[in-house]
Amino acid sequence: xxxxxxxxxxxxxxxxxxxxxxxxxxxxxxxxxxxxxxxxxxxxxxxxxxxxxxxxxxxxxxxxxxxxxxxxxxxxxxxxxxxxxxxxxxxxxxxxxxxx
Length: 100
Ligand SMILES: [Zn+2]
Description:
This protein is α+β, with helices and mostly antiparallel strands. The protein has 4 helices and 2 strands; from the N terminus they run E-E-H-H-H-H.
């Protein structure tokens, strides 16, 4: 989302005439958008629970491989090393990082 109210800062400056100071005010447009995303993630996760475990894993694996490949600071060899050693903890951490 590109917020025209705060330019994606999450807040904007407002002049307080009484105290002659600049105050930072949270952008409600962005706050509501974040709240909507959190609700959507919860609702989507509920719908996904009725899919097969294999299908979910296949989609998650595709997301990881494609996101690693797109990231110029990461590489598929690093991912492959974790995969070949079946090292689940860093793989889950990586998937979670790419999900952010
Ligand atoms: Zn905003």
